[in-house]
Automatic annotation (TrEMBL):
The keyword Nucleotidyltransferase does not apply. It comes from Aeribacillus alveayuensis. It holds the Pfam family DegV. Keywords: Lipid-binding. This is DegV family protein with EDD domain.
Length: 290
């Protein structure tokens, strides 16, 4: 029996990915005005970015405990081996909630084989890990083997990204006021990365061309064997920037594949329009399925 894969909308994978019979989607929640929406299921990212460009505040919250519980119970009744790869616990409370619900469900179904991983990843860095897990499931790996492999994969995932305005990250409590102030000086574009699941400012670069060149340099410093690997780019409704950066990456590295998708509402509400992020495995990770 293949292991069932669960992931939430912090993975920034399209809903079409979850049409696979061996996957389940758990939406985070987005609030516009006084109305709550389930990310991707009830609201599209484009709507959120439009709302933000008008200067309006978008709020987010973790996945509904009821949604998580119902999905766990459905799988428990089938006694189906399941692996939930969760959005970084440093950015959402969904992982902690899922762990509590797991204990509740196991009290009723003590033999239910369910593992939960804190990916410590975000956006398509997390999404690539979910895609990797599905490959492992299709190869027939056991739940324990998959859990170990996916944890290692996540530990080696690099996130390099830039935002158009640090104010959005500040508003959502993702960075400090000092970091936002420094980043906003002289129209300097910040580069950030993810360290142990947290967003960390890396350096500041002036000018878009220099910014893209620096991203390429960081990829060279941190990764290798790109011809054998799938990379990913996610964006806050800026396809023109994606195409420019994607071409530079393809010309420089000739990667196996560059997977592109828009940043979903739950993350985009904090990073804002114009965000651009690159994800790749660092040089210390090697696996025959890549």
């Amino acid at each position: 029996m293949h292991v069932h894969i669960l992931a939430d909308s912090g993975s920034d994978l399209p809903l079409s990915f979850f049409e696979h019979k061996n996957t389940s989607f758990i939406p985070l929640r987005v609030q516009l005005g006084n109305k709550d929406y389930e990310d991707l299921k009830e609201i599209e990212p484009i709507e959120v970015y439009h709302y933000m460009r008008e200067g309006k505040v978008v709020k987010t919250s973790q996945a509904s405990p009821e949604t998580i519980r119902n999905r766990f119970l459905e799988l428990a009744k089938q006694n189906k081996p399941s692996l939930y790869i969760a959005f970084s616990s440093e950015l959402s409370g969904t992982y902690q909630t899922a762990m509590m619900i797991r204990q509740e469900v196991l009290e009723e179904y003590p033999d239910f084989p369910l593992e939960i991983i804190d990916s410590k990843c975000a956006s398509l860095g997390y999404g690539l890990a979910v895609q990797f897990a599905l490959k492992l499931s299709e190869q027939g790996q056991s739940l324990q083997e998959m859990s170990s492999s996916v944890k290692e994969y996540c530990q080696h995932m690099e996130h390099i990204f830039t935002v158009d305005q640090l104010d959005y990250l500040l508003r959502g409590g993702r960075i400090s006021k000092t970091q936002a102030f420094i980043g906003g000086l002289l129209n300097i574009k910040p580069l950030l990365h993810v360290d142990k699941g947290r967003l960390i400012p890396l350096e500041k670069v002036r000018g878009k061309k220099k910014l893209y060149r620096r991203i390429i340099e960081l990829m060279e410093e941190r990764g290798d064997d790109f011809k054998e690997k799938t990379l990913a780019i996610s964006h806050g409704d800026d396809l023109e920037a994606v195409e420019e950066l994607k071409k530079m990456i393809e010309d420089h590295f000739q990667p196996k594949e560059v997977y592109v998708n828009i940043i979903g509402s739950a993350i985009g509400a904090h990073s804002g329009p114009g965000t651009l992020a690159v994800f790749f495995l660092n040089s210390s990770f090697h696996h025959e399925l890549l």
